Amino acid sequence: MRKNRLVEEINRLKKEKRAVILAHNYQPDEIQDLADFVGDSLELSRKAAEVEADIIVFCGVHFMAETAKILAPGKKVLLPDLRARCPMADMVRGDDLRWMKEQHPGKKVVAYVNTTAEVKAETDVCCTSANAVQVVSSLPEAEIIFVPDRNLAHYVSQKTGKKLHLWDGYCPIHEEIKPKHIERMKKRHPGAEVWAHPECRPEVLLLADRILSTGQMIREAPKSEAREIIVATEVGILHRLRKENPDQKFYPAREKAVCRNMKRINLKKVYKTLLLEEPEVVVEPGLADRAREAINQMMLFI
Ligand code: 13P
Ligand code: SF4
Questions:
Q1: Domain 177-252 CATH class label
Q2: Fold that domain 3-85+262-282 belongs to in CATH
Q3: 222 CA from centroid of ligand 2 (Å)
Q4: Quick one: 51 exposed, middle or buried, by C-beta within 10 A (0-12, 13-18, 19+)?
Q5: pLDDT exceeds 90 at position 42
Q6: Which helix (H) or strand (E) holds 117?
Q7: Is 219 helix (H, G, I), strand (E, B) or coil?
C-alpha cells in the first residue's frame, strides 16, 4: 500500500475502533506526523492516563507502552513491534534492584521511568528526565538509590547535592555522543547554543548551555533567543524542532545518534497493529498495582 493510502486506512481504523496514536519525540518523522499526540515520556504518561479511547497505539518503546497500560488498565495498549525495547531499561532487573535494596537497607528508591514494570514495583517514586531533579529534591533523605541511568544520576546528584547509590546503566545512544562531537559542531557553528539531554555523559553536559528533556526542548525552543542550536540527543527530536520553529536552525550534535528501537515502528506496522489489534502489551494486575504507586508519585511533579 502506498504511504497516503496507509495513512488514510490508519485514520479510518482509528475512528472505527476509537483508538488514539501516541508517539514519542524520537519516533520516525512519518509517525510523528500521523500521531494524535507527540511528547516526552512524562507527557505521554499523562496523556495515556487521561485520553478518552478504547485503544492506545503506542509508538515508542516497550517500557512506555507498559507505563501507559499500568496507568490505563481499562484500555487496550498496542505496541506495533514488541522488539522495540529500551536497552537501558533492560540493564536493570527486579532482582538487581532487590539486591541493591539489601546493600542499602531502608534507603528510598527512585527509578527512571525507563525501567520494566518489575523494577517499578520495587520503587518508591519514578521520575523522567523532565522531573528527576524535583523528585529527588522532594525526598527528605540525603542518600537515595537511583536506577538505572548513571549519567542522569550524576546530573541529579550535582543539582540536588544528594548522595545517589547508582546502578551502572546508560543509554547507548546518548553515551556515544562525545565532547569531540560537540566541539566539532561548535567550530562549524560558533554562534550556536548547545542543548543536551541529561542522559548524556557528564563531560558532554559540561559543554552544554542548557540541559533539558525532549519535551522541555520543544517548549523552550520558541522562547529562546538562540538562532542556532546544537542538539545533543536522539536525532528524531529535530523533526518537531524544525517544523515548529522554521526561523531557527537546529543541528544534531551527532548525526548517528539514532535509537534503532524507536525506529522499529513504521506506518505499515501501525496499520497492521490497528487492524489486528495486536501485539498487545499486558501487565499482570498485581504487578501493575505495585508499579502504579511509584508512577503516580512521579505524576505529581511537572
Ligand atoms: P524524554 O522524552 O523523557 O526526555 O526521554 C528520553 C528518552 O530517552 C526516552 O527513551
Ligand atoms: Fe532507551 Fe536511549 Fe533509545 Fe531512549 S534513546 S529508548 S533511553 S536506548
A1: alpha beta
A2: Rossmann fold (3.40.50)
A3: 25
A4: middle
A5: no
A6: helix 117-120
A7: helix
